[in-house]
């Protein structure tokens, strides 16, 4: 069995890389130091032994504090402190020092072992400064930062993220992030989390989430799977609120669809004008041929009364077709895009024929009641005419499937203070519960084959002309659609 001798222990202490100093347990005087300590402090053993605490302590470290530390080690057996040593060259060295009481044969000593922690403290200060700056930056970010598990639970969320969600106390570590999303967004997020991302490559995802104010918002997030050394792993989301951009984009798409709808109407008008022009000549020629045939029949064989009757009726149908073509042509040629001063009653009169034509197949009883006085407005004539036709055609479609006693439609105009009003009243089923607020929304419709453009277009046209449009149920049954426009006083 190997038993080290006293000089062996001294050799071991000398060889230790840890700086070691021996103090007398009672007087606290320095008795000895190993080579590592002498090398760090820059003293020889002969120079170090007679030194006192003030001779080798850095600024801010006082003898009384050092004595309390060493006395604590005597009482408890061991004490740890941070102590600032000063080398012979005046270099201050911040150290972590451990004083341990050791009972030797001759006397009790304090074995003080210390190591330079200056670099560690410098790194700590840098990290603390970096953390402070990072927290300041994160606090002012417009984006939120979160780390989610594969099941969508929050493992970390930044202050900016909670502020963006308006969710102080709601979205905390351990809570489910995806449960606040709508169903489609939740499925999309979980599917993204479940996919294997090669090399943890970043990817983008868009989702709809309910904020703390119970409003729904759209977020766009850049995501990446991370694995950190402190076991914080998961899907890192850098997200921002893009609700305003989504709404703007949706409004742009709706505007484009409206323009497309108006373009189709404009094209229809041009086509109608071309058709009216092309049909007028063959119809006139056909009428001339039939009238010539009638003259010949009457001259050659007056007995051909049945043939003459048929041809005479054909002439009347041609005249009827000519009237239709003339009305279409007169209406279409008024497609000017500049506002002009016009009587609202005249626009209603222009629309009279087309409304009557639409109502005839369903035997709808029409009543036109224009105001006796002129109702002057500044407008694009064809657009206001389009509003009247849309409101009237909607009412006719509503009445077409109802009993004959209810198939009544009344259109009237009047003035009130500085406005003119046109109303379309029907005796249909009225406006259903829950539909009133959506009637004038884009693409909302109650018709099986409707596109939801008509009333939204009416609202847009009336608003463009500085007016208001609304709808309400009337007693005992039916609905009334009205619009008002500023009245132009006669000069």
Report Rg.
47 Å
Order of strands, main sheet, comes to: 2-1-5-4-3
Tally of structural domains: 4
CATH class of the largest domain: Alpha Beta
Q: What is the tally of helical segments?
A: 13
**Per CATH, what is the topology of the largest domain?**
Heat Shock Protein 90
* Poorly predicted tracts of residues: 447-452
| Percent of residues in beta strands | 15-25%
Shape: rod-shaped
Compute the number of strand runs: 17
Mean pLDDT across residues: 80
| Helix-strand category | alpha+beta
Please characterize this protein's 3D structure.
This protein is α+β, with helices and mostly antiparallel strands and 491 residues long. It has four domains: 6-117, 2-Layer Sandwich (Beta-Lactamase), CATH 3.30.450; 141-241, Beta-Lactamase, CATH 3.30.450; 247-332, Helix Hairpins (Orthogonal Bundle); 340-486, Histidine kinase-like ATPase, C-terminal domain (Heat Shock Protein 90, 2-Layer Sandwich), CATH 3.30.565. 43% of the residues lie in helices and 25% in strands. It has helices at residues 6-15, 35-41, 45-48, 53-56, 63-76, 118-139, 159-165, 183-194, 243-300, 305-332, 344-359, 381-399, 454-464; strands at 19-24, 30-33, 78-86, 92-103, 108-116, 144-148, 154-157, 203-210, 216-227, 233-241, 340-343, 365-369, 376-379, 408-416, 419-426, 468-473, 479-486. It has a five-stranded antiparallel β-sheet. A five-stranded antiparallel β-sheet has the order 7-6-10-9-8, with helices on both faces. Helix 12 runs antiparallel to helix 13 (454-464). The longest helix is centred in the middle third of the chain and has 58 residues, at 243-300. It is rod-shaped. The model is unreliable at 447-452 (pLDDT under 50).
């Amino acid at each position: 069995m190997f038993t080290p001798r006293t000089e062996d222990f001294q050799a071991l202490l000398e060889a230790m890389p840890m700086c070691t100093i021996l103090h007398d347990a009672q007087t606290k005087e320095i008795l000895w130091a190993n080579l590592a300590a002498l090398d760090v402090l820059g003293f020889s053993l002969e120079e170090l032994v007679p030194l006192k605490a003030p001779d080798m302590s850095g600024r801010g470290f006082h003898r009384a504090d050092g004595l309390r530390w060493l006395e604590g080690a005597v009482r408890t057996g061991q004490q740890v402190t941070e102590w600032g040593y000063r080398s012979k060259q005046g270099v201050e060295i911040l150290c972590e020092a451990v004083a341990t009481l050791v009972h030797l044969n001759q006397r009790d000593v304090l074995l003080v072992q210390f190591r330079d922690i200056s670099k560690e403290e410098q790194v700590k200060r840098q990290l603390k400064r970096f953390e402070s700056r990072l927290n300041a930056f994160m606090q002012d970010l417009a984006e939120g930062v979160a780390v989610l598990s594969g099941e969508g639970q929050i493992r970390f969320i930044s202050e900016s993220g909670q502020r963006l969600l308006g969710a102080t106390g709601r979205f905390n570590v351990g809570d489910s992030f995806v449960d606040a999303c709508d169903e489609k967004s939740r499925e999309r997020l979980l599917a993204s989390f479940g996919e294997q991302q090669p090399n943890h490559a970043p990817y983008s995802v868009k989702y709809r989430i309910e904020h703390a104010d119970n409003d729904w918002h759209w977020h766009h997030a850049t995501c990446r799977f991370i694995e950190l050394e402190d076991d914080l792993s998961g899907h890192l989301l850098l997200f921002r609120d893009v609700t305003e951009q989504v709404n703007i984009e949706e409004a742009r798409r709706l505007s484009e669809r409206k323009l497309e709808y108006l373009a189709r109407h404009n094209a229809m008008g041009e086509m109608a004008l071309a058709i009216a022009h092309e049909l007028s000549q063959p119809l006139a020629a056909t009428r001339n041929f039939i009238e010539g045939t009638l003259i010949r029949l009457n001259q050659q064989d007056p007995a051909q009364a049945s043939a003459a009757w048929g041809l005479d009726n054909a002439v009347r149908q041609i005249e009827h077709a000519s009237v239709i073509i003339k009305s279409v042509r007169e209406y279409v040629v008024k497609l000017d895009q500049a506002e002009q001063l016009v009587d609202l009653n005249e626009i209603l009169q222009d629309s009279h024929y087309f409304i009557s034509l639409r109502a005839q197949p369903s035997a709808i009883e029409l009543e036109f009641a224009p105001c006796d006085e002129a109702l002057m407005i500044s407008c694009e004539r064809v657009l206001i005419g389009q509003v009247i036709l849309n409101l009237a055609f909607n009412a006719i479609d509503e009445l077409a499937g109802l009993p004959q006693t209810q198939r009544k439609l009344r259109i009237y105009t009047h003035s009130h203070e500085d406005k003119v009003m046109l109303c379309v009243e029907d005796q249909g089923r009225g406006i259903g519960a829950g539909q009133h607020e959506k009637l004038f929304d884009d693409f909302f419709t109650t018709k099986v084959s409707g596109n939801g453009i008509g009333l939204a277009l009416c609202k847009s046209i009336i608003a463009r002309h500085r007016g208001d449009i609304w709808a309400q149920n009337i007693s005992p049954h039916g609905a009334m659609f009205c619009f008002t426009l500023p009245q132009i006083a006669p000069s």
